[in-house]
Amino acid sequence: MIFENSNNLPSYLNEDFFKAALEVGLRDSCVDIKKIEFGEPSGGGENYCSKIYRAKALYRCSKRQLDEELALIVKSIDITPATQFLEDLAVYLREKIFYFEVLDKLEMLMGQGTKFGAKCFYTTGEPMQTIVFDDLTQYGYRLASRQKGLDEEHCVVILRKLAKFHASSMVLLEKNPSLKEHFKAGMLDETYVRSSERFTDYMSLHVRTLADMVATWKGYEEISKKLHNYCDNITENLVKSGRPRPGEITVLNHGDLWVNNFMYKYKADNCNTPEDAVFVDFQNSFFGSPGCDINFFLNSSVQLPVLKYRREFLIETYYETFHEALREMNYERIPSLKEIQDEITSRELYGFFSLYSFLPMVALSKEDSADISLEALADKEFARKKVKVMFSSNPRTMETIKYALKRLDKLGIFDEEP
């Protein structure tokens, strides 16, 4: 057994771990591990809530008796005071249930070889919460640039895939209503928001920092006051943003739909033209309005010209695929375009949450994001300085916020009572 590039890796990533992962994932009672080669682990700046390890396994399974190679992603969450909220939100359990009880069903319902996510090989809670996935890069999938944001082509591909994901989840929920119990709330779970002073303090830091900056912009003085007022009622506003609404259209939201949480596959004859996309990281998935995912995506991941001039086109593109997918699955009550548009409008406050809390972090330069981790952000002075950098690091952030705040103010979302 040979381990390569294994320096500074946790001791539990050993032969027994990978043997168990492959035997479970490949459904083979006896896998012989020949070699494990590790890539560079990633964490701060790209994966804020977990440690990601890349490993390439050379192995032989009893079924074929051939040496084979497989690239794997190992995602671990160490529960510390800084990451306790992940335990409070039950993100590991939710993601585990999604991969083992939901993903395959959604893909089968959609048919046509649809792939929504990577194959999950193995999960374990010891010595820490860990999930092992197929590494999608070995099949040609790769991340887009979080700093640049997505152009229209990339937006169309992901929104079409999101539409299929949402549509198939509606059909699955109709067949299995009890499934909703496992995915009641995402990152804005009301119980968590009301009980976590640390979370609300960090959200307040973002909004106060933004409000103070906005106060220096000509023509934004009143908006700055409204942002301070929003922050004065931050807990109630966050609860309102995430709370289910009576009679809303209900789909399974990805729940964390920003650039690093989906990967693209590109055309063989044009490495810049995307033809498919798959999602990663389902730990915040929840049943709720499709307006949550759509607004979160639009406010965190889209290039400004696309957001300004192609917003309605993108929504109509989503709806076209959503309608067609539901029709193909013989769903009886297909929502109209107007109903979907109303869902999106009703969840603009959720989009605002994405705008001030995620866009600044998403668009950070690699240099400015290298030292970010949940543990580092637990230091209030570090967090205060870093949040200021977040808003100024990338011109795209300020330009998008300037446009979005005027638009949201015109819609009146800052004037609503929490």
Write the layout of secondary structure elements.
Elements: E1 2-4, H1 15-25, E2 31-38, E3 51-61, E4 67-77, H2 84-88, H3 91-110, E5 120-124, E6 129-134, E7 141-142, H4 152-175, H5 190-195, H6 197-214, H7 221-232, H8 234-242, E8 251-253, E9 262-267, E10 270-279, E11 286-288, H9 290-301, H10 304-309, H11 311-328, H12 337-346, H13 348-357, H14 359-362, H15 366-369, H16 374-377, H17 380-392, H18 395-411
Quick summary of this structure?
By secondary structure, this protein is an alpha+beta fold. The chain has helices at residues 15-25, 84-88, 91-110, 152-175, 190-195, 197-214, 221-232, 234-242, 290-301, 304-309, 311-328, 337-346, 348-357, 359-362, 366-369, 374-377, 380-392, 395-411; strands spanning 2-4, 31-38, 51-61, 67-77, 120-124, 129-134, 141-142, 251-253, 262-267, 270-279, 286-288. It folds into two domains: 1-134; 143-411, Aminoglycoside 3'-phosphotransferase, Chain: A, domain 2.
